[in-house]
Write the structure tokens for this entry.
Amino acid sequence: MNMIPAAAKEFKPADYKSSVKPVWCPGCGDHSVLLAFQRALAELALPPEQVAVISGIGCSSRIPVYTNCYGFHGVHGRSLALASGLKVARPDLTVLVASGDGDGFSIGGNHFLHACRRNIDLTYVVMDNRIYGMTKGQPSPTTEPDWDTAIAPGGTGLSPFHPLVIALASGANFIARGFSGDVGGCAKLIVEAVRTPGFSFVQILSPCVTFRSDQQKGWKTLVHNAIVPETDDPARAARRLMTDDGFNVGVLYRGKRQPYQPKPLADLAPSCLESEFAI
Amino acid sequence: MTNAAQSDQPPKFESIADFFAQALAIEVEAAERYTLLADQMEVHNNKEIAAIFRKMALIEGEHREEIARRARNALVAGRTATFSWTGPDGPEATEFGQLHYLMTPRQALRLARFNEERAVKYFEAVAEAATDPVIAAFAKEMAQDERNHVVWVDQWLAQFGADDPSWDEDPDPPVYSE
């Protein structure tokens, strides 16, 4: 489990806000997710200097700069690789990872599988708008096969990636879905994700108002609380996913796997590295 | 959508301190939300709407001060700690998804009006559900404050004519090609 100190000090969401103003389009779901991050951190009472927010590339990956925690805006699809290295080296930090459906499931798809499998104590939040928004609207792995646009006439015809199924099959220890229109609900899921040891995956449906406004404005009428309670049984979770309409929100699965965390080397110092690089 | 104002059950408070903690938190949240909306509009160079949201943030901030003044002796060490930040949004918080980068003053003020109306209903429901007559009285006072805000927003709205039907036409749209 992440090291959460007893609530010695109270924090407000604004305590995690940087002075940089978000450049996301007004109406974008990512604004809500940012606020959910800040509310969750306040609820967890984590000092900003004990938190690192790591991201890759894309609209959603701009989140680190909008928080005043430690941040790393990494390369495309590699947020989980960076975060894994950081958490293994600095287990004292709470590490949150932010991504989008393109960055996380296409370019970073392989890292996603292995992060689930390794079960390092990370919280991975993917803002899913079923499109590459930053590069102006190409279909992503979660785009519907019949979404007809000038760049994909008639749709891609490809079955969408199902992130929750993949996460469960690959060994993630906590799996949930939220909707950006419910800031409090997302914050609660992030809190639960951080509090659950191991690799936690939270998919947040986050509408793109610029390229998919017509289809995604209606998401708020489609999302509904999952009627089936969370489970620690992967088989039950898998059965529930078989009937998932993609708009169930809440915790799907909370497992009991021990996180992977190698023991720190007591004598590791910067000088130790010198021998590794000696010619 | 979950929202404190849209809950099926009217909220009940165990103490006057709890009531004021929630009332203050609603105003703080509203002011902070309007500030975030103003920032968004400023970044997208819609300065007219940014100014409207900034003014709304100021008004909600002043309302917070007024509530704190009324609550003076009822708050627990002056804190709003009973408000859960992971709970649903308060009735005066604008949904982020309602914004458009080219939105007009009328649209922005209609959002503000909607929030004030929602706050009226919220405090009316609190007053009705309250078993403590002091909480009921304070809630009725809050509902009246919010009604006054609705009137005030209406007066502001009257300064603007109907929206141009082409309000959302962008000569340089973000869509890559059609």
